[in-house]
TrEMBL record:
Protein name: Sugar ABC transporter permease
The species this protein was found in: Lentibacillus kapialis
GO CC field: plasma membrane
Subcellular location: Cell membrane
Main location: membrane
UniProt key word Cell membrane: yes
Alphabetized UniProt keyword annotations: Cell membrane, Membrane, Transmembrane, Transmembrane helix, Transport
Domain of life: Bacteria
Amino acid sequence: MKKTKRISTDKLFKSFIYVALIGLAISIIIPVAWVFMASLKENSEFYGNPWALPDGFYIQNFVEAFIEANMGQYLLNSVMVTALALLFLLVVALPAAYVLSRFRFFASGLLNVFVKAGLFINVSYIAVPIFLLLLGWDTQLRALMGEDFFLNNRVMLALIYASTALPFTIFLLSSYFETLPSDFEEAANIDGAGYFRTMFSVMLPMAKPSIIIVVLFNFLLFWNEYILALTIMPGDNKTLPVGLLNLMAAERAAVNYGPMYAGMVIVMLPTLILYMIVQKRLTEGMTVGGVKG
């Protein structure tokens, strides 16, 4: 009797989980699908049934968004900044996480404390100090060479993005490296591999699932970041989120909704494509063994 009651309780719990997940999926899919449909509508269609399918594929919305609203240039800026930020981040975070998790040396505990303390710093709190710092450097540089460098610079923005993401990335990768057994390193050491060879040839390939999670999470963070991009890029090198806000303000004032939704699609599409590419990797099990005892 107890076993039957337990089975029915498990079925009820699973049914509740399925219903909740389906409801969550619907709440996400419907708005995204609506934005895609709205991006293909002519302006007159927005005054009818908002849930009606578009009469045709009005590609002119994307042409206006790309050319007239300069979203193509903003897209290129976002791609460059995000790619550089991920490159800078991985070059620094991977060795740092490996060393902090696998080696004990003088002040290693203090360094770990500093990394964890960085998790509690919100980037919005330091946007203005960063801007004032870069503005001061540009003022001094302009007095010496007559040129600006630090503000409105895509490489500098990428460096700042990577720096602000270091604490979380190092913490996440360190947590994974700590789960790996030392047998792999001992085997590599017996084969004559040094520390660098062991890290690049043995440990990093094993950390691929964790690296993919880090890349995806930080891609979303960098791609959608707004506050730093608005503060540090006051010139023409705007990124997509800043450009999208300007586009929405302009098209809403002109009562021209199609290009506005086309701009939203331009922002969302790279994220959806990346997720479809790596979603299988996200569910892979992480290898924590492999040496038979």
